[in-house]
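Journal club prep — side note

Before the paper discussion, L.F. wants everyone to see what a predicted structure for a comparable chain looks like in token form. Sequence:
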Amino acid sequence: MKRNRSDLITLGIETSCDDTALAILRGKGVVLSSLISSQIKSHSMYGGVVPELASRMHQEAIIPLLEKVLRDSGITEPSKEIDLIAVTAGPGLMGSLLVGVMTAKALSQAWKIPIIGVNHLEGHIFANVAANKDLSPPFISAIVSGGHTEIVDVKKLGEYELLGSTRDDAAGEAYDKIAKMLGLGYPGGPVIDKLASKGDPVAFDLPKPLSSSRKVEFSFSGLKTATANMIRNSEKNNISFRKEDLCASFQKAVIESLVCKIKLAMNNTGSKKLTLSGGVAANSGLRGRLKEMAFEERWELFLPPIEMCTDNAVMIASAGYDSYLRGNISDLSLSPDPSWEIW
């Protein structure tokens, strides 16, 4: 029996970096099942993601995860019950992307159902679309993660304009590097956020990147270097300091930089609707500051639930479903593009 467009069932597959994620979605946002196999423990000893290890672990995890996500959603005949396969095709690590794309192509061929390649960043935009039924374009989307720091004007779903991005490090990458220097482990964002809540945010005078620039752009390399030098100098001169205070001061500088440019983008476009997504969207300090600013500026602020901030397959399934309804489709020639841009 042919289903209504709003009831189409999509299998989402996300393997752009170090999380193997699969989800079954009805329509744009009804989650039937969502699972993630994290590789954090395996990569933490190296202080970051090792691409070769990541792709190998994706290969080991993806089929058992597929079997479980199908069971959990009550699907027994995928070829008859699933209408679409949506898979992250870029940007990301080539080896990791290959595992997801090749799996999706094999399933598409075996089940004889359509496949669509999804841009990972568009997926992050759709994390809020899937989670918030009241969200509709136009709106401004801030994507902040370990690999990305972009502000995007979402004119309509499928039509995006990049308003600004980072010149160098992404915000999440800066968090990871400072956490590594402090011996806090990987990933660094959640640990720094936790310690920052117990520290003095004005204990250290750290630079506020590009605070005087009137461009919507970011730079976290200078802040990272200034913080690293402060740590090295303290260790060299045997000067003790509270990690909580340094974390609080570092986080304050990052948040002020992000919020400053988000406000600039909102003012430049005249938009009153803002979404935040990406791994750093889980940061309690950033979420709290944006809530304050949204109240002050009378913006509508949409935040994804914490579990949808990091890479997940719900956002990929939602983006793929919407793109499919707009008339887009891929075929078995689909190949990963680690540098895929959508603007």
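L.F.'s comment for the group: The two ends are 38 Å apart (CA to CA). Keep this in mind when we get to the figures.
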